[in-house]
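Thread: "does anyone have the structure for this chain?"

Original post by V.I.:
We have the sequence but no experimental structure in hand. Need at least a predicted one for the grant figures.
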Amino acid sequence: MEAWRLLPTGLFSPAENMALDEAVLIAHSEGLVPPTVRFYGWNPATVSIGYFQKQAEIDFPVLRAKGLGFVRRPTGGRAVLHDREVTYSIVVSEAYPNMPKSVNESYRVLSMGLVEGFRNLGLQASMVSLATEEEKQKYASLGSSACFDSPSWYELVVEGRKVTGSAQTRQRGAILQHGSILLDLDEDLLFSVLYFSSDKLRERLKAGFREKAVSIKQLTGREISFEVAEAAFRTGFEKGLGIELVPGELTERERHLLEELVRTKYGAPEWNEKR
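Reply from O.Q.:
Generated one for you, tokens below.
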């Protein structure tokens, strides 16, 4: 099996998390580090928005009052509340053997690690092909700013509902895919920090969101710790991707990039408030 690097788990600030994902992508594109997987958390709990999303969709006075962090991701998609979850990231070359060229097909391949991780927790997970309009509508957006609403050509479904949201970007010949694995879900908190033209619209979209998105706790009826979930997905990624995850550390190049990207990009208003 191919050996990939597993970076240590930890809690990081919003800017550090996004900067670290990009730092690994750059270092891998330069041939300095192997394909890399990371599982991490957020301190404080944070709302992230997609690269193309308008910051006007976020109610910042409410966000600040609730003590939440904020960051713009380098990937697309919509708003995500990073709170009671395990966040994963994968960095691998576009030229990696048998890696599909298209975003949707590579998403399907890389997400097999997620499928196996959920199965390790005793949940029925599968990749569903959204080949028909009927299937697309089942998981389609209701128009809210929240993630977990927007399907690609494939959807990772657990017990018939979404329990993870992922996004992907390609830069410098490398792929970065990251996403949220929901241990628990506070829909009220998420929708309280999204801006809506009326409370009636907020409640309608929240109700639709609840029908599509679900957490591991809601599915299992029990608390799953970060450590238990991380272990399940670590072995799930090994099986799903046919790799061996070897614990490693950040290189000096990555540490330098991390500090630079926090200072000049993910920690800067010019990036986070650009739209």
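V.I.: this helps a lot. The chain has one domain: 2-272.
O.Q.: and Residues 2-272 form a domain with the BirA Bifunctional Protein; domain 2 fold (CATH 3.30.930.10).
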